[in-house]
Amino acid sequence: DSGVTQTPKHLITATGQRVTLRCSPRSGDLSVYWYQQSLDQGLQFLIQYYNGEERAKGNILERFSAQQFPDLHSELNLSSLELGDSALYFCASSPSLAPNTGELFFGEGSRLTVL
Amino acid sequence: EDQVTQSPEALRLQEGESSSLNCSYTVSGLRGLFWYRQDPGKGPEFLFTLYSAGEEKEKERLKATLTKKESFLHITAPKPEDSATYLCAVGMDSSYKLIFGSGTRLLVRP
Description:
The structure holds 2 protein chains of 2 kinds.
Chain A: E1 5-7, E2 10-13, E3 19-24, E4 31-38, E5 42-50, E6 53-57, E7 64-68, E8 74-78, E9 87-94, E10 105-106, E11 110-114
Parallel strand pairs in A: 2-11
Antiparallel strand pairs in A: 1-3, 3-8, 4-5, 4-9, 5-6, 7-8, 9-10, 9-11
Chain B: E1 3-7, E2 10-14, E3 19-26, E4 30-38, E5 45-50, E6 56-59, E7 62-66, E8 70-75, E9 84-92, E10 98-100, E11 104-109
Parallel strand pairs in B: 2-11
Antiparallel strand pairs in B: 1-3, 3-8, 4-5, 4-9, 6-7, 7-8, 9-10, 9-11
Protein backbone atom coordinates (compact mmCIF):
# COMPACT_ATOMS: atom_id res chain seq x y z
CA ASP A 1 0.00 0.00 0.00
CA SER A 2 1.60 3.25 -1.21
CA GLY A 3 -0.55 5.45 0.99
CA VAL A 4 -2.03 7.27 -2.02
CA THR A 5 -5.78 6.88 -2.36
CA GLN A 6 -7.68 7.34 -5.59
CA THR A 7 -11.42 7.29 -6.14
CA PRO A 8 -13.33 5.99 -7.93
CA LYS A 9 -11.47 2.84 -8.96
CA HIS A 10 -13.71 2.32 -11.97
CA LEU A 11 -15.92 4.70 -13.88
CA ILE A 12 -18.04 4.13 -16.95
CA THR A 13 -19.62 7.09 -18.66
CA ALA A 14 -20.78 8.33 -22.05
CA THR A 15 -19.20 10.63 -24.57
CA GLY A 16 -19.77 14.29 -23.86
CA GLN A 17 -20.03 13.80 -20.12
CA ARG A 18 -17.87 15.23 -17.35
CA VAL A 19 -16.18 13.30 -14.52
CA THR A 20 -14.05 14.13 -11.51
CA LEU A 21 -11.28 11.90 -10.24
CA ARG A 22 -10.03 12.36 -6.72
CA CYS A 23 -6.64 11.75 -5.13
CA SER A 24 -5.48 11.87 -1.53
CA PRO A 25 -1.68 11.93 -1.34
CA ARG A 26 0.45 10.22 1.30
CA SER A 27 0.41 11.97 4.62
CA GLY A 28 2.89 14.84 4.52
CA ASP A 29 3.47 14.79 0.75
CA LEU A 30 3.06 18.23 -0.82
CA SER A 31 3.44 17.28 -4.49
CA VAL A 32 0.71 15.60 -6.48
CA TYR A 33 1.17 14.38 -10.05
CA TRP A 34 -1.44 13.16 -12.51
CA TYR A 35 -0.56 10.64 -15.21
CA GLN A 36 -2.65 9.04 -17.94
CA GLN A 37 -1.90 5.47 -19.00
CA SER A 38 -3.39 4.01 -22.15
CA LEU A 39 -2.39 0.86 -24.01
CA ASP A 40 -0.77 2.65 -26.91
CA GLN A 41 0.70 5.66 -25.11
CA GLY A 42 2.23 4.42 -21.89
CA LEU A 43 2.37 6.70 -18.87
CA GLN A 44 1.85 10.29 -19.99
CA PHE A 45 2.44 13.15 -17.57
CA LEU A 46 -0.50 15.50 -17.28
CA ILE A 47 0.12 17.99 -14.50
CA GLN A 48 1.84 18.56 -11.15
CA TYR A 49 0.74 20.57 -8.13
CA TYR A 50 2.88 21.49 -5.19
CA ASN A 51 1.28 22.83 -2.02
CA GLY A 52 -1.74 24.08 -3.91
CA GLU A 53 0.06 25.64 -6.87
CA GLU A 54 0.45 24.31 -10.39
CA ARG A 55 4.18 23.69 -10.98
CA ALA A 56 4.51 21.63 -14.15
CA LYS A 57 2.29 20.87 -17.07
CA GLY A 58 2.47 18.12 -19.66
CA ASN A 59 0.32 17.49 -22.69
CA ILE A 60 -2.89 18.00 -20.79
CA LEU A 61 -5.90 18.69 -22.97
CA GLU A 62 -7.82 21.92 -22.55
CA ARG A 63 -10.88 19.79 -21.69
CA PHE A 64 -9.00 18.56 -18.62
CA SER A 65 -8.29 20.60 -15.53
CA ALA A 66 -6.99 19.91 -12.06
CA GLN A 67 -6.57 21.55 -8.71
CA GLN A 68 -5.04 20.88 -5.33
CA PHE A 69 -6.96 21.92 -2.27
CA PRO A 70 -5.66 23.31 1.06
CA ASP A 71 -5.86 19.85 2.62
CA LEU A 72 -3.56 18.73 -0.25
CA HIS A 73 -6.01 16.37 -1.92
CA SER A 74 -6.32 16.86 -5.65
CA GLU A 75 -9.03 16.49 -8.26
CA LEU A 76 -8.73 15.92 -11.99
CA ASN A 77 -11.72 17.10 -13.98
CA LEU A 78 -12.32 15.64 -17.41
CA SER A 79 -15.04 17.21 -19.55
CA SER A 80 -16.61 16.73 -22.99
CA LEU A 81 -15.35 13.18 -22.82
CA GLU A 82 -14.35 11.34 -25.96
CA LEU A 83 -13.81 7.64 -26.61
CA GLY A 84 -10.07 8.26 -26.70
CA ASP A 85 -10.10 9.49 -23.11
CA SER A 86 -10.64 5.93 -21.92
CA ALA A 87 -7.55 5.11 -19.89
CA LEU A 88 -6.13 4.52 -16.46
CA TYR A 89 -5.54 7.77 -14.60
CA PHE A 90 -2.89 7.63 -11.92
CA CYS A 91 -2.16 10.03 -9.16
CA ALA A 92 1.26 10.05 -7.53
CA SER A 93 2.69 12.00 -4.64
CA SER A 94 6.09 12.94 -3.29
CA PRO A 95 7.30 14.99 -0.35
CA SER A 96 9.17 17.58 -2.37
CA LEU A 97 8.82 19.73 -5.46
CA ALA A 98 11.47 17.90 -7.45
CA PRO A 99 12.00 14.44 -6.02
CA ASN A 100 15.70 13.88 -6.66
CA THR A 101 15.39 10.26 -5.72
CA GLY A 102 12.75 9.85 -8.41
CA GLU A 103 10.53 8.12 -5.93
CA LEU A 104 6.94 8.88 -6.66
CA PHE A 105 4.27 7.01 -4.74
CA PHE A 106 1.48 5.97 -7.06
CA GLY A 107 -2.11 5.21 -6.26
CA GLU A 108 -3.88 2.24 -7.79
CA GLY A 109 -5.48 4.36 -10.46
CA SER A 110 -8.94 5.21 -11.71
CA ARG A 111 -10.01 3.27 -14.76
CA LEU A 112 -12.19 5.43 -16.98
CA THR A 113 -14.25 3.87 -19.75
CA VAL A 114 -16.04 6.20 -22.14
CA LEU A 115 -18.78 4.56 -24.20
CA GLU B 1 12.94 16.29 -27.93
CA ASP B 2 13.28 14.48 -24.61
CA GLN B 3 12.61 10.81 -25.12
CA VAL B 4 12.78 7.47 -23.34
CA THR B 5 12.67 4.20 -25.28
CA GLN B 6 12.49 0.74 -23.76
CA SER B 7 13.20 -2.59 -25.38
CA PRO B 8 12.07 -5.21 -25.85
CA GLU B 9 8.35 -4.47 -25.56
CA ALA B 10 7.78 -7.94 -24.19
CA LEU B 11 10.06 -10.69 -22.91
CA ARG B 12 9.30 -14.29 -22.00
CA LEU B 13 11.80 -16.18 -19.88
CA GLN B 14 11.95 -19.55 -18.28
CA GLU B 15 12.46 -19.54 -14.55
CA GLY B 16 16.18 -19.20 -13.91
CA GLU B 17 16.95 -17.78 -17.36
CA SER B 18 18.79 -14.49 -16.84
CA SER B 19 18.33 -11.55 -19.21
CA SER B 20 18.49 -7.76 -19.51
CA LEU B 21 16.00 -5.00 -20.25
CA ASN B 22 17.14 -1.84 -22.00
CA CYS B 23 16.20 1.80 -21.53
CA SER B 24 17.73 4.37 -23.84
CA TYR B 25 17.19 8.05 -23.32
CA THR B 26 17.68 11.40 -24.99
CA VAL B 27 17.30 14.26 -22.58
CA SER B 28 18.98 17.56 -21.94
CA GLY B 29 20.33 17.67 -18.43
CA LEU B 30 19.67 14.30 -16.80
CA ARG B 31 18.74 14.68 -13.15
CA GLY B 32 18.33 10.96 -12.64
CA LEU B 33 17.10 7.71 -14.18
CA PHE B 34 14.53 5.67 -12.32
CA TRP B 35 13.19 2.14 -12.59
CA TYR B 36 9.68 1.15 -11.56
CA ARG B 37 7.79 -2.13 -11.49
CA GLN B 38 4.09 -2.25 -12.36
CA ASP B 39 1.84 -5.24 -11.69
CA PRO B 40 -1.43 -5.60 -13.62
CA GLY B 41 -4.12 -3.29 -12.30
CA LYS B 42 -1.72 -1.56 -9.92
CA GLY B 43 0.23 1.66 -9.85
CA PRO B 44 3.97 1.67 -10.57
CA GLU B 45 6.23 0.84 -7.63
CA PHE B 46 9.63 2.47 -7.29
CA LEU B 47 12.71 0.25 -7.59
CA PHE B 48 15.93 2.23 -8.19
CA THR B 49 17.47 5.62 -8.81
CA LEU B 50 20.67 6.06 -10.83
CA TYR B 51 22.33 9.46 -11.06
CA SER B 52 25.53 9.12 -13.05
CA ALA B 53 27.22 6.92 -15.63
CA GLY B 54 28.87 3.91 -14.07
CA GLU B 55 26.49 3.74 -11.15
CA GLU B 56 24.91 0.39 -10.23
CA LYS B 57 22.11 -0.54 -7.84
CA GLU B 58 20.98 -4.01 -6.76
CA LYS B 59 17.88 -5.43 -5.15
CA GLU B 60 17.40 -9.17 -4.85
CA ARG B 61 17.54 -10.57 -8.39
CA LEU B 62 17.55 -7.13 -10.04
CA LYS B 63 20.55 -5.00 -10.90
CA ALA B 64 20.33 -1.63 -12.63
CA THR B 65 23.23 0.02 -14.44
CA LEU B 66 23.62 3.36 -16.18
CA THR B 67 25.71 4.69 -19.06
CA LYS B 68 25.59 8.10 -20.70
CA LYS B 69 22.93 6.99 -23.16
CA GLU B 70 21.15 4.02 -21.66
CA SER B 71 20.33 1.95 -18.64
CA PHE B 72 20.00 -1.79 -18.23
CA LEU B 73 17.94 -3.76 -15.79
CA HIS B 74 19.57 -7.15 -15.39
CA ILE B 75 17.44 -9.96 -14.02
CA THR B 76 19.40 -12.88 -12.64
CA ALA B 77 17.73 -16.28 -12.26
CA PRO B 78 14.23 -14.81 -12.41
CA LYS B 79 11.24 -16.35 -10.68
CA PRO B 80 7.57 -16.28 -11.76
CA GLU B 81 6.89 -13.57 -9.17
CA ASP B 82 9.21 -11.26 -11.12
CA SER B 83 6.61 -11.18 -13.89
CA ALA B 84 5.49 -7.57 -14.28
CA THR B 85 5.93 -4.54 -16.50
CA TYR B 86 9.18 -2.70 -15.83
CA LEU B 87 9.15 1.01 -16.49
CA CYS B 88 12.07 3.34 -16.90
CA ALA B 89 11.73 7.07 -16.27
CA VAL B 90 14.01 10.09 -16.45
CA GLY B 91 14.03 13.31 -14.53
CA MET B 92 15.52 16.42 -16.05
CA ASP B 93 17.21 19.46 -14.55
CA SER B 94 14.78 21.73 -16.39
CA SER B 95 11.57 20.16 -15.15
CA TYR B 96 9.93 18.59 -12.15
CA LYS B 97 8.14 15.90 -14.13
CA LEU B 98 9.31 12.38 -14.86
CA ILE B 99 9.15 11.08 -18.43
CA PHE B 100 8.33 7.39 -18.59
CA GLY B 101 9.16 4.87 -21.25
CA SER B 102 6.45 2.54 -22.53
CA GLY B 103 7.77 -0.36 -20.48
CA THR B 104 8.87 -3.96 -20.96
CA ARG B 105 6.32 -6.66 -20.12
CA LEU B 106 8.20 -9.52 -18.52
CA LEU B 107 6.70 -12.98 -18.17
CA VAL B 108 8.66 -15.63 -16.28
CA ARG B 109 7.35 -19.14 -16.76
CA PRO B 110 7.87 -21.86 -14.15
